Amino acid sequence: HAKRGDERRYATYLPSMEEQSLAVLNMENDLRLALAAGAFELHFQPKVSAETGDVMGAEALIRWPHPERGMISPMDFIPLAEESGLIMPLGRWILRDACRRMVAWRAQGIAPPSLSVNVSPRQFADPSLTETIERTLEETGLPPECLDIEITESVTSGDVERVISTMAALKAMGITLSVDDFGTGYSSLNYLKRFPIDTLKIDQSFVRDLMDTKGKDAAICATVVALGNNLGFTVVAEGVETADQARFLYEKGCHMLQGYWISRPLPAAAFTAWLAEMSEPEQPAALTAG
Ligand code: C2E
Ligand code: MG
Ligand code: MG
Ligand code: MG
After folding, report:
1. CA separation (Å) from 109 to 112, 147, 247, 272?
2. What residue owns the CA closest to ligand 1's atom 13?
3. Does 21 sit in the ligand 1 pocket, CB within 6 Å?
4. For the segment 88-104, what is each residue's pLDDT rounded down to a tens digit?
5. pTM of the entire structure?
6. Does the pLDDT of residue 61 top 60, yes or no?
């Protein structure tokens, strides 16, 4: 019987527990080697003003071009890097590379006002984080005002006083703080009151179904935008893929948009070209017509 045969064949291809942990080990080892070989790269995605379309910032997003597996998503290796502790040296590399890119764009006169770097919970809990950031800014020559740190709500699950003092130290340097994936974690309202943050990023899961007829995600987006505005935060929507979503968010008072509708994350060279094109002065209509 063909069906049963297929099932049995499939079953033999299910990786055993042993093979699974071996795969994780291999991946961890690959991560270590990739870091030593300088094999990671940062891609960059712009954040634009919802009102004018001006480039207001960019987010650095790590990519791992793997020789056998192709481009590996950060969702598949950041958790492993966190577990194994490799996120610490990897995080330092990310920060340094991001800052150096910004310095180069500033020298070319095409830099966005600020660049965002994602910092994972384990990095944020590390007592040497503020010192690492301070040293990296000094060594690269990037003004602190040009750096934004994105953290998720899960950093708040640690020692609250400690989290607040880390945030305060970063703020004192002149760095801005964004809460990423807002609305997907815990304790939102309490920490909005207590933590010295600048920006809320509405999670893309709410933006994705914004135009659904049931209207729940539209209500959530509108409410988060209003909340952010009332508390004096900048509100960024991530995962904006359509003009309808962009218009809705703008009309509700969302300040910035990020997503495929504006640009996909681009490799450094392509993003440099994108920035250069965006910063070209607009041609007067009379010259471009005809
Ligand atoms: P995130 O920080 O929330 O980043 C947004 C994710 O949404 C990115 O996925 C981005 O490529 C994707 N995205 C942007 N616009 C759109 C859109 O219009 N539609 C859709 N469907 N997706 C969009 P990516 O690059 O795969 O990163 C996934 C997550 O991995 C990030 O979520 C962040 O949590 C983590 N990550 C990425 N780079 C770093 C890093 O350098 N350090 C750390 N610690 N985490 C990172
Ligand atoms: Mg982010
Ligand atoms: Mg996000
Ligand atoms: Mg996310």
Report:
1. 9, 17, 30, 11
2. 239
3. no
4. 999 999 999 999 999 99
5. 0.91
6. yes
